[in-house]
């Protein structure tokens, strides 16, 4: 049991480390090709990164499924939730919402909060992967979307201490905490995603990266770039995430907790319980 737990955490920590490196390594290169078309950034390394990330997700699924008797049912539940989220993204593509609003982040946040960070990471990463296959959204940006959505789901359990302090489980206080979390991630998701192409972008010098510049200058330029190009777009995601939480969080949390109680148990042989 201890070996399985260590293996699971090694897999997730490895995936997080690969994601951080993938986003940040261009900032340490002595020279970068400037891409006039945003979608051509990372065109060379994105296929390898996507292959590695999908492989990590499947390895995590195999380890989780073998961990204990209830895990196979949790994996089945994950498949259902990912399918629902992929369908929601298909609807979003067919009838786009305002700005960066997307309904998929609601389930990523709530499942990560209830089921745990590992479940949340898989929910986020696989939602973006499956929905990209359905909607034709496969491109060099996809592995970066998968990492960022996975990190949102992985970080959702950080809401639990605040909910415990407020004694808010099952009440509107819990919904407020989750709405604030989802709203902040509405901005954070866009801020992180911009980094996949920003070092390669061309434009006003005061808004773009130059190899060799000091990191403080880079932060200031990125802030100027974000305010000028992304804040209004991401604000729609912030508002949409919060509205969905206030509208649907309470019944969704009740359903997820019911599944968690049914599927989460530890098998003990009869001789260990005195039978």
Summary?
The chain has 275 residues and is mainly alpha-helical. It contains ten helices and no strands.
Name its key features.
275 residues; Arp2/3 complex 21 kDa subunit ARPC3; 0% strand; globular
How would you describe what is shown here?
By secondary structure, the protein is an all-alpha fold. It has one domain (2-19, 45-263): Arp2/3 complex 21 kDa subunit ARPC3. The chain contains ten helices and no strands. It has helices at residues 2-24, 46-65, 71-94, 104-115, 117-135, 142-155, 160-166, 172-194, 215-229, 231-263. The protein is globular. It starts with a helix and ends in a 12-residue tail after the last helix. The mean pLDDT is 86.
List the helices and strands and how they pair.
Elements: H1 2-24, H2 46-65, H3 71-94, H4 104-115, H5 117-135, H6 142-155, H7 160-166, H8 172-194, H9 215-229, H10 231-263
Helix pairs in contact: 1-2, 1-6, 2-5, 2-6, 3-5, 4-5, 4-6, 4-8, 4-10, 5-6, 6-8, 8-10
Helix content: 55-70%
Largest sheet: none
Q: What number of structural domains do the residues give? A: 1
What is the total tally of β strands?
0
Instruction: Write down the Rg.
Output: 20 Å
Question: Which outline best applies?
Answer: globular
Helices and strands, in order, run as HHHHHHHHHH
- The parts where pLDDT drops under 50 for at least 5 residues are none
CATH topology term = Arp2/3 complex 21 kDa subunit ARPC3
How many angstroms separate the termini?
22 Å
């Amino acid at each position: 049991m201890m070996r399985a737990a260590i293996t699971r955490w090694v897999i997730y920590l490895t995936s997080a480390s690969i994601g951080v490196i993938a986003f940040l390594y261009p900032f340490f290169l002595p020279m970068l090709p400037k891409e006039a078309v945003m979608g051509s950034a990372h065109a060379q390394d994105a296929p390898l990164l996507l292959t590695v990330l999908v492989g990590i997700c499947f390895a995590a699924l195999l380890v989780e499924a073998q961990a204990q008797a209830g895990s196979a049912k949790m994996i089945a539940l994950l498949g259902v939730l990912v399918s629902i989220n992929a369908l929601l993204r298909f609807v979003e593509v067919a009838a786009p919402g305002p700005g960066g609003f997307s309904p998929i982040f609601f389930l990523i946040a709530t499942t990560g909060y209830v089921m745990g960070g590992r479940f949340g990471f898989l929910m986020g990463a696989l939602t973006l992967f499956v929905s990209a296959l359905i909607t034709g959204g496969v491109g060099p940006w996809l592995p970066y979307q998968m990492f960022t959505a996975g990190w949102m789901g992985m970080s959702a359990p950080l809401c639990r201490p605040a909910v415990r302090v407020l004694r808010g489980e099952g009440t509107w206080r819990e919904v407020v905490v989750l709405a604030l979390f989802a709203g902040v991630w509405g901005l954070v998701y866009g801020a992180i995603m911009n980094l996949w192409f920003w070092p390669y972008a061309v434009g006003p010098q005061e808004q773009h990266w130059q190899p060799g510049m000091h990191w403080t200058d880079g932060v200031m330029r990125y802030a100027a770039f974000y305010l000028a190009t992304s804040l209004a777009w991401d604000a729609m995601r912030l508002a949409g995430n919060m509205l969905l939480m206030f509208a649907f969080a309470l019944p969704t949390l009740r359903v997820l907790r019911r599944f968690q109680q049914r599927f989460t148990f530890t098998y003990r042989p009869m001789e260990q319980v005195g039978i």
